[in-house]
Hints:
Layout lengths: L10 H18 L1 H8 L1 H4 L9 E2 L1 H7 L13 E9 L7 E9 L6 H16 L4 E6 L11 E6 L2 E6 L1 E4 L5 H6 L3 H12 L8 H17 L4 H15 L4 H13 L4 H16 L14 H17 L4 H8 L3 H5 L2
Parallel strand pairs: 3-4, 4-7
Antiparallel strand pairs: 1-2, 2-3, 5-6
Amino acid sequence: MDNNFSDNSSTTSERADFDGLWKDAIKRFLPQLIERTLPALYHDVDFSREPVFLSKELRDSIQRPVADEHNSPLFVDELIKIFLKDGRAEWILLHIEVQGSGGEDISFRMMLYCCLIFAHHRKMPIGLAILTKRRPKDEIIGAYKLEQYGSSISYKYNCFEVYALDDDNLLNSDNPFDLIFYATKKTIGLSGKSKEEKKLSYLLKLTRLLASKGWGKEERKDIFNFIVRAVNLKDEALQQKFIQDIHDFQGDDTMAQLTFVEQYFRDKGHSEGLHEGITIGEERGRREANFETARRLRAMGMIDNDIQKATNLSFDEISSL
């Protein structure tokens, strides 16, 4: 399989990385994502009211064997309750799917999930499919239609093709999510040692660009975190080179160092070989990350024994989730 963000790792690991990467970005930058992908909706949303993320409700509405579709490692789904400001409707449901390579017909899946969400919530969701990689040529995207003996069903949804976006427009944009889209677009298919130098080049370029943006420090840290995790630089010598570069760089190097060490190397388990003076975060942070990973793996159906091996949590701790 041609993967976006990882090399030849296990399917479970790929899925956890892709899922966590995008869910974190959606939750952190939801207004910016809506502004970029659904501008008409953006003007109607009351962002003074916190959106409600309904991941559990979405899982409840998608029962097996439909839930098996989530086994695609490059697939993310999110259901969000969003409040409007004009009084036409107090709130709406936004169904977001992020799809890389693989998976079955996305239009069929979007229609099916729409039906299941409607049956569960009695409210039709607004559908948004974010495609990070081209779909098969014979697959129709953006709509699904089925007719049979006088009965028919037709469903249209919003489709945002990341791979078709213009590089210069993304780099010059004032919307933080455009740098997320750029990192996603440029790292598609990058895997293996021969591509590590290119990964480093993208990291250096985006680090400098991010430091030049007039966004808040926390905002830039979170974008940087996505970029580093998405690029997924694996070569340890190049990791050292990148760390040294951000130390020498005269921009906001504190932001880069903190995020790179506390998030990327800690989450990926690449703390070995880091030069002295680089901390990988407190033990509490590591345990919290392990608990979050355990929750996600359990939600995906992994047995407790395998979760224990992946997280080093005790069976009592896993059972308490």
